[in-house]
Design a protein that fits this description.
- This protein is mainly alpha-helical and 156 residues long.
- Helix content is 72%, strand content 0%.
- The radius of gyration is 25 Å and the shape is elongated.
- The termini are far apart.
- The relative contact order is 0.06.
């Protein structure tokens, strides 16, 4: 650690203040790192030179794929977060949380190699709607349960 600090001080002395400031702020720290493996590789691997063979359509298609991939990963994370609230067992004694997560994983794996943007968009919209509907039902059931418990307390 001391050697790193000495190297850091030597670098600060050898550079002009403005250069040193720019160097510090251009570095990428761990907590400011990339969100996905693709971004990590994109940042640190030598990029393929853009050839004249690449058309604008191919470039736009690649950009759309990365944005839909982010949306898909966001939906999957939303599903995992939403299933935290389903902590009661089903008729077989398995937690609903685990059942829902397994079903979500299965559906994502089935659609993994889908290339048609319209189908992907339809699946994303359907997934978001399903998560929202499940959470709405959960909230409604919780409200009913609270009202029922309140009525039982009032009767006593």
């Amino acid at each position: 650690m001391a050697a790193a600090m000495a190297k850091h001080r030597a670098l600060a002395v050898s550079l002009q203040p403005k250069q040193y400031f720019n160097l510090l702020h251009c570095r990428s720290f761990l907590n400011n790192g990339p969100d996905t493996v693709e971004e990590l590789l994109d940042r640190h691997v030598v990029k393929k030179k853009k050839s004249f063979d690449d058309t604008e359509d191919e470039i736009l298609t690649r950009q759309k794929l990365t944005s839909t991939r982010r949306e898909v990963m966001g939906l999957y994370r939303d599903i995992i977060r939403a299933t935290r609230y389903f902590m009661w067992p089903d008729s077989h004694g398995v937690l609903w949380r685990d059942v829902l997560r397994a079903n979500a994983r299965k559906e994502f794996e089935e659609a993994r190699f889908e290339k048609d943007p319209e189908v992907i968009t339809r699946l994303l919209i359907g997934g978001h709607d399903a998560v929202q509907a499940a959470l709405d039902k959960l909230v409604e059931k919780q409200k009913q349960q609270i009202a029922k418990e309140q009525a039982d307390r009032d009767r006593r």
